[in-house]
Structure prediction request, 232 residues.
Amino acid sequence: MSSTEYVIAPPAVVSLPVAGGGRYPVRRIFCVGRNYLEHIRELGNDEREPPVFFMKPTDSIVQDGGIVPYPPGTQNLHYELELVMALKSGGYRISPEQALDHVFGYAIGLDMTKRDVQKTLAGKSQPWELGKAFEHATPCGPVYPVEQVGHIESGRIHLTVNGETKQDSDISHLIWKLPEIIANLSLHYRLQAGDLILTGTPHGVGPVVAGDAMVGEIAGLGRLAVAVGTPE
Ligand code: MN
Prediction:
């Protein structure tokens, strides 16, 4: 066996379909928390604190039309509908003025959250991975290239569960706007092509159970439909 031969099969590249053709390979998934004021208030967090960053595993992505099996270890699985930025380039210390030049396109994402687990861990000042970074935790729709849809500064963001509206807000209510998110994150990471950034959820988060149908929409980006399944 040559030294370059893998001793186990390498993992498949995780990718998203691109509206208009091709696939977008996903490198990392960054998330912004606490980036809409009404959502900070509904969870009882300090509205003077700046937004926070965390990450989710790339292979937690669920494709549009897919299923999120109800995950173990929670009694309170929540949806969080979010605008997703998909980068085509990156770097350290990106200026807000040049930040959007690094965006390939936009998508609709769900930051699925074990709210009970997240709150317990955060309350003990422990990392909240178990509440955020689990299997099937990141449904994401097709990527819409900037050349098709432009950059997104406003527009309705709307989620239904079984046809009933649960989240209904506007992208313009983001606390950190998209260029600020990229600029701030690039102070900590050398951002790269393939990086996704979930930009935070508006108010209206709540629980789902097996059998529920979630449909997220963001103006210009189509819709993301995902169902909650029975536990694996
Ligand atoms: Mn979130």
Remarks:
- The chain has a mean pLDDT of 96.
